[in-house]
Amino acid sequence: MDTRLDFFAHRTSGTVLKHFMSAGRVFKEAPLPAATQELVALRVSQINGCAVCIDMHTKDATAAGETPVRLHLVAAWREATVFTEAERAALELAEEGTRVADAVGGVGDAVWERAARHFDEEQLATLVLLISFMNAANRMNVITRQPATGTYESGRAH
Fold first, then answer.
1. Three-class SS string for 101-145?
2. What single-letter DSSP state applies at residue 1?
3. pLDDT for 57-66, tens place per residue?
4. Domain count, the chain
């Protein structure tokens, strides 16, 4: 599969993407647990079919100490018992936030309330921004057919 577009070959898109990626690095300093961030990033990328992001976030999560069992079960988190209640609430919010077109009314109140039980307002704001950020990154990569070559090294994009 050939990439359709090199964003960095053009002044406007290269500048925008440079700032976009810089904004993404801010999440690493956020008060939302790193494991939760990686699980959410991975799940959003799975839903959107973004292979390059799945490769990246699987490797980053592994480097951060995530177990293969949990990573393999992210796609079926509802049926898996290896996630905390907070992680389950974050994954549920990530799914509804990613599938807004499929859900009449967007993210449901019950989903939001479950997330709010586990995360304070700053963490919720970070979670919402992370979900939105990942959806934007996934869409850019899927639209332009950015391939997952399997050569990503953890931390390279951060």
1. CCCCCCCCHHHHHHHHHHCCHHHHHHHHHHHHHHHHHHHHHHHCC
2. -
3. 999 999 989 9
4. 1
Distance (Å, rounded) from C-alpha 80 to C-alpha 39?
A: 13
**Both structure tokens of 38:** 């990686």
* pLDDT in the model for residue 64: 87
CATH number of the domain enclosing 79: 1.20.1290.10
Phi and psi angles of residue 17, each rounded to the nearest 5 degrees, phi first: -65, -35
The answer to whether residue 156 sits within a structural domain is: no
Tokens read off for 40: 């959410």
pLDDT value of residue 11: 94
- Spell out where the chain has E strands: none
**Two tokens at 103?**
């859900």
* Rounded Cα gap, residues 12 and 35, in angstroms: 34
Range of the domain at 61: 33-143
Examine the pLDDT at 157 and tell me if it is beyond 80.
no
Buried/exposed 104-119: b ≥16 CB within 10 Å, e otherwise: eeebeeebbebbeebb
Q: Residue for token digits 């490797």?
A: 59
